[in-house]
Design brief:
The complex is a heterodimer of chains A (262) and B (275). By secondary structure, chain A is mainly α. Helix content of chain A is 75%, strand content 0%. In chain A, helix 3 runs antiparallel to helix 9 and helix 9 runs antiparallel to helix 10. The longest helix of chain A is centred in the middle third of the chain and has 31 residues. The two termini of chain A are 27 Å apart. Chain B has 275 residues and is an alpha/beta fold. Chain B has one domain: Rossmann fold (3-Layer(aba) Sandwich), CATH 3.40.50.300. Chain B contains ten helices and eleven strands. In chain B, the strands form two sheets. Chain B has a seven-stranded mixed sheet with strand order 1-11-10-4-9-8-7, with helices on both faces. A four-stranded antiparallel sheet of chain B has the order 3-2-5-6. In chain B, strand 8, helix 6 and strand 9 form a beta-alpha-beta unit. Classes of the chains: A mainly alpha (262), B alpha/beta (275). The interface between A and B is medium-sized, with 34 and 35 residues.
Chain lengths: 262, 275
């Protein structure tokens, strides 16, 4: 591992973010819109039935923590896609940078983007709705870590699919996290899902992470068992996704798919 | 009479060097589905040697180059660069290789100085700024340093692409169609810069081109591919002479048009299956 090469990958993507106003949508515009949308909905629900638990805290905490997963995933995916959009993949592949170094660099820059998006989300939630997600306390840290790992899993799965099927698979970078959002009970217990989907939802580590979040929001201690389940599930998911991606990279090299991107 | 290589391909006028090859690819094979794109190709480039890889469209040049660069995995054969075997030591091998292609763009949204700095970093250059300044100066494009890459003309982009490929002073420079679609004066600057680099730094060169005059200017030796096989390996002048033509262009036109090989080639070009 070369720290210089990892740092260089971070610098390359920092240049792109700095020069591309459209890239700020992911870390500023969408977080702002999500807080407005879900915060307003929560305020309305609370005004209709003040005793309801499905008010502003549930919705805002849900969307803020969902963004941990989304930002982690989309940063890794757009980092890879940037090289395909600018037809730079071959240029990168013929340098000494290794796959691990490249992923580490994009992942580090993704962490920076996650912090920037987190600032947007937190400030907007406080400013518009007086909700401070930090008031939930340190319990957010382990839940957030599970969501980061889940975000990486989705990202590796999508990169693997893009290596195999080309740019037509790009849509999954945005599509898959909506599937996860719908099935993971980000805002509500999965008991509210159609019965046929509930077993699938239970298999997702994100479901247990968001369930743990609601337990904490209700004023109870962090449910260790549920969080452990989420952690194990997310680590297993990451292992499977990385394995899939590595296999697809072998197929990519064996079948000469680099010419699709150059 | 020119010596013949062990695999039967013509080895005209090649002088064996005691120096270890910077690139040694042996019996490369690559198929895509039922199509055999590369069929037992040997490419050896010695330190400081300038070699042209030629052939008509579909001959397997680009596939061969991509395998030599580690971007495509061969079905068979071995590749060693500067003593490092691919694919296991790809990263170490690539530290000794620079690659530029006329068809490859530079990353958008970056200034020339920035993109060169990024590639210097990826190649592990210690003093990135000095390497970038020296590279730009060498190819006389220092005035482009603060231009955005997407604002460059194709000639400027090619020159910057070559600067990018030599920032780390590679032992082997691989150029794929370096002057395709360039004006003659710009193409001449590219050739002069490459020759200057090779003579001063002792950099070996492997170049593909459809401009046979360019190949005669750049390459001391030519590896000629047809249908994924090496059919000739030797100096441009001797190859032209053996085909009964005055220059490489006439040989190329002859082969691309399905022309026959000299009698002593018949057993090579007509043979089926892997060798």
């Amino acid at each position: 591992m070369s720290w210089q090469r990892i740092r260089t990958v971070v610098r390359r993507h920092a240049y792109v973010l700095w020069r591309s106003p459209n890239r700020w949508f992911d870390i500023a515009f969408w977080p702002l819109m999500d807080v407005l949308l879900w915060g307003s909905l929560g305020t309305y629900v609370a005004s209709q039935s003040p005793a309801s638990r499905a008010g502003t805290p549930y919705l805002l905490a849900g969307i803020v923590m969902f963004h941990v997963l989304f930002q982690t995933q989309i940063a890794l995916n757009t980092g890879f896609m940037e090289e395909t959009w600018s037809r730079n993949l071959l240029n990168i592949m013929v340098t000494p940078v290794t796959e691990l170094e490249y992923v580490a660099g994009v992942g580090m820059f993704g962490a920076v983007k996650l912090v920037l998006a987190g600032v947007t989300l937190t400030c907007t939630a406080i400013g518009f709705f007086g909700f401070n997600v930090a008031s939930i306390g340190w319990s957010l840290v382990p839940i957030g870590l599970v969501l980061v790992v889940a975000g990486w899993s989705i990202a590796f799965l999508v990169i693997g699919l893009m290596l195999r099927f080309g740019q037509s698979a790009e849509i999954l970078a945005w599509g898959l996290n909506f599937v996860v959002m719908a099935l993971s009970g980000v805002f509500n217990p999965i008991a509210a899902l159609p019965g046929a989907l509930q077993p699938i939802a239970r298999l997702l580590p994100t479901t247990h992470a968001f369930a743990a979040l609601r337990v904490v929001l209700d004023g109870h201690p962090l449910p260790g068992g549920q969080l452990l389940l989420a952690a194990i599930g997310s680590v297993v998911g990451l292992g499977l996704a990385v394995g899939f991606c590595v296999h697809m990279l072998r197929v990519f090299r064996r079948r000469g798919f680099v010419t699709r991107f150059s | 009479m020119a010596p013949e290589r062990g695999d039967g391909a013509w080895d005209a006028g090649r002088v064996e060097s005691p120096v270890d090859p910077v690139l040694a690819a042996r019996r490369l094979v690559k198929s895509f589905g039922k199509v055999r794109a590369v069929d037992g190709v040997d490419v050896v480039v010695r330190a400081g040697e300038r070699v042209g890889l030629l052939g008509p469209n579909g001959a397997g040049k680009t596939t061969t180059l991509l395998m030599l660069l580690g971007a495509v995995t061969p079905d068979g054969g071995t590749i060693t660069i500067a003593g490092h075997r691919l694919p296991r030591s790809r990263s170490k091998a690539m530290a000794h290789v620079g690659f530029a292609a006329g068809y490859l763009p530079l990353p958008d949204r970056l200034r020339v100085r920035e993109v060169l700095g990024v590639f210097a970093g990826l190649y592990g250059v210690r003093d990135e700024k000095a390497a970038v300044a020296e590279g730009l100066e060498r190819f006389e494009v220092g005035h482009l340093a603060d231009r955005m890459c997407n604002e460059l003309s194709s000639g400027q982009r090619t020159l910057v692409g070559i600067v990018k490929a030599v920032l780390h002073r590679p032992r082997l420079l691989v150029l794929d169609e370096p002057t395709a679609s360039l004006d003659p004066d710009v193409a001449q600057r590219v050739r002069a810069g490459v020759l200057d680099l090779c003579s001063h730094d002792g950099t070996a060169l492997l170049v593909t081109s459809h401009d046979m005059r360019e190949v005669e200017l750049l390459a001391e030796r030519v590896v000629f591919l047809v249908a994924g096989r090496v059919i000739a390996d030797g100096s441009p002048a001797v190859i032209a002479q053996r085909f009964g033509h005055d220059d490489l262009e006439a040989v190329f036109v002859h082969l691309a048009g399905g022309g026959a090989l000299p009698e002593d080639f018949d057993d090579v070009i007509g043979r089926g299956g892997p060798r």
